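Task card 7
Instruction: Convert sequence to structure tokens.
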Amino acid sequence: QVQLVESGGGLVQAGGSLRLSCAASGSIFSIRAMGWYRQAPGKQRELVATITSRGTTNSPDSVKGRFTIARDNAKNAVYLQMNSLKPEDTAVYYCNAYIYDSSNYARGADYWGQGTQVTVSS
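Output:
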């Protein structure tokens, strides 16, 4: 069974930093891409950042210059370094990965972590 486990969320003051971690485990053949999404109360889930196996990244203007995504292919892990946090960054952050399972490596599928709460106080 493939699963994603997240850690690193918490409560910080505005201007502070947090580092989120996510590791995939199980019968993994390969991982094409990994990323982070977030969902604030009363709002839809939105993209935070993604990174491909080759290192290509993508993120919206709302986090550019403040958040950095990184990936460790050997560990099947992805990280999100969040600096200069703002109250509007408060949300549940979810790890996402497109994974090819060893039992069915011909086609990949999306997997999601359980989510980790990030709260930024003013």
